[in-house]
Amino acid sequence: MVDVIVIGAGIGGLTAAALLQERGFSTVVFEKNRFPGGSCSSFEKGGYTFDAGASVFYGFCDDDAMGTLNLHSRIFRKLGIAVETIPDPVQIHYHMPGGFDVPAWFDRDRFLESLCRRFPHERTGIRKFYDELESVYEILNSLPAGSLEDVIHLGVVGARHPLKVMALGVKTLFSMGNVARRYISDKELLRFIDLEAYSWAVQDAVSTPLVNAGICLADRHHGGINYPVGGSGTIPAALVKGFEKFGGSIRFGSEVSKVIVKNGSAVGVRLSDGTEVSAKAVVSNATVWDTFSKLVDDPRLRIPDDRFIKAPSWFQIWLGVDGSIVPPGFHMHHIIVDDWSKYDELGGTIYFSAPSVLDPSLAPPGKHALHLFVTAETWQWEQYEYRSQEYKAAKEAFAKSLIARAERLLPGIQDATELMVTATPQSHARYLNRRDGSYGPLLKPGQNILLKPQNRTPIKNLFAAGDSTFPGQGVIAVTYSGVSCASYIARQLGKALDYL
Ligand SMILES: Cc1cc2nc3c(=O)[nH]c(=O)nc-3n(C[C@H](O)[C@H](O)[C@H](O)COP(=O)(O)OP(=O)(O)OC[C@H]3O[C@@H](n4cnc5c(N)ncnc54)[C@H](O)[C@@H]3O)c2cc1C
User: Pfam families under this entry (predicted)?
Assistant: First the structure.
């Protein structure tokens, strides 16, 4: 019998596990893969280190006064683990139709000025809109991370910061797009703001809560974007190191098949080899759909299809290329939109990263590691038998069409490609046990962000951490979810966590 079992070593699960173990709760993590990190991991091929998913990272600033909650820095400090990062001067370099090209600089004035130069008639509106995001950021930056289900935490925060909590409550009522439309009317500029939301939320600005934008689009100018040396997998590897340092146990290659529930309460898990392990509390890092259709055997708890919007999955390409095509000063992250009418359709927006421009150790000398991906759905690939020649040929043909579209960004990329790895939504679903490989559940337009599931579930002692829970998708968001989940459980088990 252990105190806590965590199902899945994604960033949400690992964060919860590491904080609980550090506080003295015996914790075991079961991960089906042989590596940690889930959508935030690295893999190696042909001398390259590639990011499996995430590569834009918040929360790594050294200065605690800067950066919304600065969660990664605080957690790694608590665990006593050093993670070296490289500051990225640009969050994303956007390339849009009509030669509209703008890097989202760390330097806020430089970014806003480049927008004002393109839209001089919207100068005042641009400032007012981005100042609104700044005001959300300032509130979030001053409140400690904790569980919104923990009445003691809510009481402490409410007593210490009553005006900020009230102001934040009001701001949860608005979407980023509604606020933008208050100040801005230029259609092209509003499309850009939609794309800013889409870049991480895969929804337009009207569907994206203002509070999320206050982190993603403001913190990039404060805490900034920092890339871990060695690639994305450095983050979960460091969490595992911290977890094990305090005595935690992680079992790779161990898939959980069921949460064992007795008298309405989770009491442990059954692994796919039949082994049963008991615990006082169980945390699922799987998606809400996978938890309540596969892991929990109660049809009454299935999630109705219309409860959330199911975000699409991804078609991903990793390339090793001759380095001569990457010009000096090339930024790490890019987004390419060829046609505004298609930017939010499947495959309409290309996400592109070149991590080896920041960390050359990720590619052999003279080469670069690139990552391209677009939204995609499993139904687009279900006519092919997995690993068949037709499947491989279709993947290659689609990958080549995307690489051809990236010529606009990196002329010569097609000819310079020396190694290519591709993954369909089916691959994403299979590797991570994610229903249809989805990016996760999204709120419906107009729904308040507080309607996202929190860490408690309808089953006593079964908790959830990860991108199905508040505040949502993204590594910093699931880290918050892991912190709030650990805080709630620790208080329930009688030893509250200190604020980070
Ligand atoms: C292509 C792509 C690009 C992205 N880019 C960014 C970015 O630049 N910046 C950013 O912040 N975010 C980005 N994200 C989002 C971010 O990576 C995710 O939101 C986040 O990593 C999800 O973490 P998680 O802990 O919720 O779940 P996951 O990463 O899905 O981890 C869950 C883990 O649980 C394991 N698991 C599931 N079921 C079981 C079971 N039954 N038994 C045992 N183990 C199980 C899985 O194998 C997996 O390791 C990106 C995502 C993708 C896919």
Answer: Amino_oxidase
Pocket test for ligand 1, best of 34, 39, 232, 469 (most atoms within 8 A of CB): 39
Q: What is the pLDDT of residue 259?
A: 98
Nearest residue (by CA) to ligand 1, atom 32, is: 10
Helices (H), 218-293: 234-245, 288-290
Taking only the tens place, the pLDDT of each residue in 413-459 is 999 999 999 999 999 999 999 999 999 999 888 788 888 899 999 99
Burial environment of residue 486 by CB neighbours within 10 A (0 to 12, 13 to 18, 19 or more): buried
Class of domain 2-40+231-305+444-492: alpha beta
Mean pLDDT of all residues belonging to the chain: 96
Ranges of each domain in the chain: 2-40+231-305+444-492, 107-225, 313-376+382-423
Please give the pLDDT value at position 479.
Answer: 97
Query: Cβ distance 319 to 282 under 8 Å?
Result: no
Instruction: Using the predicted structure, report yes or no on whether residue 258 has a pLDDT greater than 80.
Output: yes
**Amino acid, res. 182:** R
117: number of Cβ within 10 Å: 10
d(CA 364, CA 156): 52
- Ligand 1 centroid–CA 152 distance in Å is 30
Q: DSSP labels for 166-194? A: HHHHHHTT-BHHHHHHHH---HHHHHHHH
Residue 63: its pLDDT value, please?
A: 87
Ligand 1 atom with minimal separation from the 333 CA: 8
Q: What are phi and psi of 345, to 5 degrees?
A: -85, 165
Q: How far apart are CA 230 and CA 294, in angstroms?
A: 35
What are the C-alpha distances in Å from 485 to residues 15, 20, 172? 9, 9, 21
